[in-house]
Amino acid sequence: MAETKDSTVMILLKLTLIAAVAAVVLTATYGVTQEQLAKLAEAAGGPDKQLLDMGVVPGATKFKSAGGELCYEAYDGGDLIGYGAMAEVQGMQDILTLAVGVDTDFVVTGVVVVSQKETPGIGDKIQKDEGFVAQFAGVGLDGLKLSDDGGEIDGISGATISSRYVTDGAAEIIGKMQQEVS
Amino acid sequence: MAKKSFVGEIIRGIIKDNPVFVLVLGLCPVLAVSTSFANALGMAMAFTFVMLGSNIFVSLLRKQIPPGVRIPIFILIICTFVTMIDMMLEAFLPPMYEALGIFVPLIVVNCIVIGRAEAFANRNPVLPSIADGIGISIGFAAALILLGTIREILGTGALKLMMLWSKEGELGFYPLSDIPGFSFVPNPITFPIEPATVMVTPPGAFLTIAALMLLFKIMSDRKRMKQLRKEGYEI
Amino acid sequence: MIETPGLLPTENLFPIFVDAMFTKNFLLIMFLGLCSYVGLTTNSDTSKGMSMAVTFVMTMSAILTWPIYHYLLSPASIIGKDLTFLRTICFILIIASFVQLVEFIIRRFSPPLYKSLGIYLPLIATNCAVLGVVLMNIQEGYTYGASIIYAFAAGLGYSWVMLATAALREKLIMRNVDLFSGFIGAFFAATMVALIIVSYFSMVKL
Predict the structure, then answer these.
(1) C-alpha A123: how far from its chain's center?
(2) What is the pLDDT of residues A112-136, one digit of tens each?
(3) Would the CB atoms of B201 and A115 count as touching at under 8 Å?
(4) Phi and psi for A89 in degrees, rounded to 5?
């Protein structure tokens, strides 16, 4: 323990000095990490590039914003072959990020669970179980419900609630896409 | 405090002053992020960074820190390191940043770090403080990884050994088998047990720590009985 | 672009409330504030005092930190710079100074209140449940109203677990269950209750 008795001025001075050093160190770290974050963002690209990389609309060679907030038009060369969107929806534990692709009649061509924070070992099967999202392809908006709720998608046993959030979330996104396009 | 060797200080931090099992401090991150081996390792690394940084700087400044405002100064020092590791994780290891979530900023209020600053680093020179930091960090990491490993094996029936590694210029946590020299390690290591999903959920964390503490208590009770019998007591 | 959430709650408040009380209970599910859980549940008077103090400080911290974050630190604030990396340091300073102030005030003006609540206040500045609740508010992007409700409900969630555990530990002391006494018994009890919460709420969709 320090034995020196400091005056109030000295205490203030020391506090300020330490705070100033901390500020300098943090600002330096901030600069370095911001650069790296910008690089990461560039590598990931905008939503159009991410949708293309995930292949939610098979055959698409380019995605272009449809003018709205959510929806991207998918082109194969010069032909419009469908739409894609990436959005956050409510999950059981936290927000889920879903990427959805549809053809021009709004029949699903692909769904990808981009990120999720569901219960490890239970809800996270929505991302790990490839058979689950594979069922979505070819289903129209009407059938986009769990089979328990009268739709065409079979929930993962043991993770029904999370499956329901994905299915309902995908339907919600497609509904919004339809509104934006029309 | 008696003079001890550098190694002695480290060992004391791991066993006699084990922060988790003996002092029962800093349990929050131990229970929350020990869902898998990889998460436990990531948290242990972040913790070690903060623990060492805080111990070194508190010890360096110990003669300059006015006793009356020492706690705010400790918090300021710890907070600087926590913010640094938080930003670096976000930039260089985004998946780990996502997995650890708010438990990285919460290292600030981890009783172990501030406790060591107050009880040790503020009274000892730099070298012993570094040893103390290393020992306490290893003790914390051991508890975290032990819990992570048990929960991952029982909860998923397999264990993925991950390591921080740079592959093709990209820093990240990769399976041990991808690292040169370790390709003999199977990935994942599977165990012939039925996975009990509950182990990776929150109740599983409480169950694991309770069972481990019970085990340690039984062991130390046994040891004490033996000691007493040796000394001639009839029990 | 990032927008500042509004002041009045637009969220559905019922799920937020139930989340904070049960499904994302701070002690049992999120593992925040466990130091006080282990240390202060030895008798029900201390846990009562601590629970009240935590609930109070949590709610007040939410009230204080939300405007600071959204009007000063966030990139969408009046300053217009991204200062979010300073959030941890700002929040901890705000909480610590607030706690200090309240402790001073009640020691000065209400000795009985100080006896029942004040002596727990210094413990709270470094309680991860309090910093946790304000960080969660920011992470979830709650409106001002919702963030206050969330903090209050989280405090209530913390309180019922503290009180229940204290009651259990008091009973355990009187029984001859040497191995399960102390926090080992508390952890086994926590396992059971957490199991109930997790299993029950994985069946219903709020």
Answers:
(1) 16
(2) 888 887 766 667 778 777 788 888 8
(3) no
(4) -130, 165
Q: Which chain C residues have a beta carbon less than 8 Å from that of B87?
A: 85
B116-145 burial code (b ≥16 CB/10 A, e <16): bbeebbbebeeebbbbbbbbbbbbbbbbbb
Chain A: give the shortest CA distance to residue C57, in Å: 26
Q: With an 8 Å Cβ cutoff, are C33 and B28 in contact? A: yes
**B12: amino acid identity, one letter:** R
Alpha carbon distance B81, B77 (integer Å) = 7
How far is B218 from chain A, CA to nearest CA, in Å?
32
> What distances in angstroms separate CA B120 from CA A3, A153, B10, B123, B130, one per listed residue?
16, 60, 13, 5, 10
Per residue in A74-98, is it b (16+ CB within 10 Å) or e — as a string?
A: bbeeeeebbbbbbbebebbbbebeb
Identity of the amino acid at C162: M
- In chain A the first and final C-alpha atoms are separated, in Å, by 73
With an 8 Å Cβ cutoff, are A119 and C86 in contact? no
Record: contact A14-B36, CB cut-off 8 A: no
Q: Residues 45..84 of C with a Cβ closer than 8 Å to B: which?
A: none
pTM over 0.80: yes
With an 8 Å Cβ cutoff, is B167 touching chain A? no
- Test C202 with A92 for CB contact under 8 angstroms: yes
Question: Tens of pLDDT along C20-61?
Answer: 998 889 999 889 988 888 888 888 888 888 899 899 999 999
> Contact A100/A84 with Cβ under 8 angstroms?
yes
Query: B79, B83, B88: which is closest to B117 by C-alpha?
Result: B79
Substitution target from B31, B89, B206 for chain C, most C beta carbons within 10 A: B206
B175 or C62: whose pLDDT is higher?
Answer: C62
Q: Which of B32, B206, B218 is opposite residue C191, by nearest beta carbon? A: B206
Residue C175, judged by CB atoms within 10 A of its CB (0-12, 13-18, 19+), counts as exposed
What average pLDDT does range C131-142 have in this prediction? Answer: 90
Residue B141 has pLDDT above 90, yes or no: yes
The pLDDT value recorded for residue C203 is 62
C202 chain-A contacts, CB cut-off 8 A: 92, 119, 122, 161
Residue with tokens 């191995």: C179
- Residue written as token pair 């555990």: C165
Tokens of A132: 């689950």
What per-residue string of b and e applies to C102-123 under the rule 16 or more CB within 10 Å gives b?
A: bbeebeeeeeeebeebbebbeb
What is the domain partition of chain C in residue ranges?
A: 13-201
Nearest to C85 among A30, A161, A164 (CB): A30
Contact C148, C62 (CB under 8 A): yes
CA B132 to chain centre: 13
- Give residue for tokens 């242990």: B44
Inter-CA distances, C152 with A39, B101, B110, B135, Å: 40, 22, 23, 39
